[in-house]
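TL;DR need structure tokens for one chain.
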Amino acid sequence: MKQHLGRQSGVQTVEVSLIDGKVNVTPKEDGRIDPGQLLKAVYDSGVSVAEMEVTARGKIIKDSSGGLALQTEPNQSFVFTPNELSNGLESRAGSPAIVTVRGQLYKKPAGKKKPDPSAPLKLLILEDLQGREISSADLRGKVVLIDFWATWCQPCKKEMPGYQKLVDRYGARGFAVVGFKFDTMADSEDPVHFAKRIGVHYPLADTDAFETAIRPLL
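>> reply
TL;DR here they are.
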């Protein structure tokens, strides 16, 4: 199975855990993975799939039927299975803001052995990862430290956990930190995973959000 998945377009690495049976597929930095083709490749290797989860970034759009979807590429989008988390993203439909979510794309139906590869995969959101919108109204009246960071920035890996400690200590007294990510170079890893790995959970956003969140305060 590892070889089958490793040959799929856009796949960089495949890690298989023999303990819990989980398979972790990491895309190439500039690659695009087709989850439907991955699912088919697993079954073609003779292995059954219980469920498939993904972490995906994209824009919230409305499909032709008016339902919400996550557009990850100009020609690739995944319709949401409605739940409380997806409903909370409705206000972002049509916005250029990028959101990151963790969700379930597939769960094996009872009594069926193999999925229909032609059936569209629907995304059931399990977690909204840093999907909060940064508003100038939320920051007004606070002491705000503005940090510009990137996943490839080595000093950032040391500085950002320190900023988080300041927020933990002084946040209740009106101190806030907002991090704006530089896009001048390609990310060295997924930004959400980067933030989690170094223990940062203050608001992070692309530099495009600077104009709406910070500029009105200047």
